[in-house]
Amino acid sequence: MNPVATPYVFAANAHVAQPWRQALTALTSLVVWTIFLYRETGAAIVTIWARSDTFTHGFLVPPIVLWLVWRQRHAIAVQTPQPAFGSFLFIACAAFVWLLGDLAAINALTQLAFVALLVLAVPAVLGWTVTRVIIFPLGFLFFAVPIGEFLMPQLMEWTANFTVIALRLSGIPVYREGLQFVIPSGNWSVVEACSGVRYLIASLTVGTLFAYLNYQSNKRRILFVMVSIVVPVVANWMRAYIIVMLGHVSGNKLAAGVDHLIYGWLFFGVVIMLMFVIGARWAEPEKLMGESGSGFPAQKHPVTTARLWTSTVCLVALVTLPHIALWATDRGKGLDPVSFTAPTALAPSWLSVSPAVADFKPAFQNPSAEMNSSYASQGRTVGLYLGYYRHQDYSRKLVSSNNVLVTSKDPQWVLVDSGTRKVTFGGKQLALRTAELRSAALTDTAHEGRMMVFQVYWINGTLISSDYLAKAYGAFHRLLGRGDDSAVIIVYTPKDQAGGAEAVLDSFWATNYAAINELLLKTRGKK
């Protein structure tokens, strides 16, 4: 090397390093502040990783992201950090989404927004050009969010459909009700563990990483990701069918108890390994990127120190705003208890009776107050359950995947059908959610041990049947300072009720809703 040129090389390196030192300090400060502010959301993510086998892979996602970024260090180094002020709008949107998610106590929404804030900090401080270099690692960070269990009901339905069809094609007679079915050798049911959601999430996560590392063509990457979605779903269908067949031909000596889970993972492991082996045949060699960072043109004008730190301070203030709004919304929120007593009568002709119409209680968790009573009129008997919620949070909330009519492990009742039904009262038409329950002990008669159930949410006086709308209304009322008082109204009656169960529930609802609404309004007023 020419000795005369050496000082100029050192000077050039110092010139390049100085903007990066300042930018990385600003980025680290912003990320640390965001993690500190949203630490409860981050802790909730880690807690789910630790307790759920479905999302244990989340512990590996951050290290993988750091490794993927490190692989691009040469391409990053030739860039000049330049804050992208256009990203401020996206950060404001993510912060607002987090606020709405926290008001409605929706874990998935707050966690997605939290990760989005961390990802958007990169373009906000370093710029879009740097972000483009590491766009995949930043996107891969979203796999750390424990989301996907909302797919479980649909996956369970598909698994049951395939298994029943395959059994019938195999010459085995099947009687099916909901997610339960009976074959000559015994009874089977599709429960949460049979949905295959954990197989799907694991396959999608690993498949996406595999596609990024082994293919250079976006077409091949997208195709392999699609395959990594379809294969585990179909493999789970085959797994369920094989397990039932093993139990059938072995007199339920094989694939019983925990064995069917072990067989399931072994089968899934073999299928996924074959998927990767086949996919590797079309792998494309990685394009080598030298120190120059070919393909990512460097920016020539570094941002000034004053502009960099001014933008960072603005970002810090922006991510802080949701917490200020939340504090203002919750200020003055008391801890007053909620209680109400079941009335002895609703409408004049509907009187409280004992014993209860059925030994049934909906599985709604941690209500602020609840009642479960039975009422009779002219030989018709109906059960009424009210679950009231106030000061909702992540452990006490009206709309939750844990709040159901019956759990899959309920020893007394089984859900066999669900739908909607329009009820008219007061000149208005309302869609109620309906369900049919059957006693866990199978009977020979069509209606014995069966109940019809109507369900609706009461959100600060507004009736809503949709989970999503109920969440949205609750967040809206809380954002406006109107509180989050909400309730679930569930009415139920035996299916063999004289006059038809649906007609009895229609009549009860139209006659007694005014009294139920008055009871809930009085409870809301006791604050």
Summarize the structure.
This protein is of the alpha+beta class. The chain has helices at residues 6-37, 39-51, 61-71, 73-77, 87-103, 107-126, 128-133, 135-140, 152-169, 197-214, 218-249, 259-280, 305-330, 467-479, 501-525, and strands at residues 175-177, 180-183, 186-189, 351-353, 369-377, 380-389, 413-425, 428-439, 450-459, 462-464, 486-494. Strands 4, 5, 6, 7, 8, 9, 10 and 11 form an 8-stranded antiparallel beta sheet that branches. Strands 1-2-3 form a 3-stranded antiparallel beta sheet, with no helix packed on it.
Notes on the protein architecture:
By secondary structure, the chain is α+β, with helices and mostly antiparallel strands. The protein has 3 domains: 6-147 and 304-330, no CATH class; 150-280, no CATH class; 351-525. It is built from 15 helices and 11 strands. Strands 4, 5, 6, 7, 8, 9, 10 and 11 form an 8-stranded antiparallel beta sheet that branches. Strands 1-2-3 form a 3-stranded antiparallel beta sheet, with no helix packed on it. The chain is flat, with a radius of gyration of 29 Å. The model is unreliable at 1-15 and 288-294 (pLDDT under 50).
Annotation keywords:
eight-stranded antiparallel beta sheet, 50% helix, flat, 3 domains, alpha+beta, 11 strands, disordered N terminus
Helical fraction equals 40-55%
* Count of β-strands: 11
Give the count of structural domains.
3
Distance between the termini: 81 Å
Class by helix and strand content? alpha+beta
Please write the string of helix (H) and strand (E) elements.
HHHHHHHHHEEEHHHHEEEEEEEHEH
User: Tally the helices: what do you get?
Assistant: 15
Low-confidence spans: 1-15, 288-294
Report the biggest beta sheet as strand number plus sense, adding barrel if it closes: 8 strands, antiparallel
Instruction: Please compute the radius of gyration using only Cα atoms.
Output: 29 Å
β-strand percent reads 15-25%
Characterize the quaternary organization of these chains: single chain
Shape: flat
Please tell me the overall pLDDT: 85
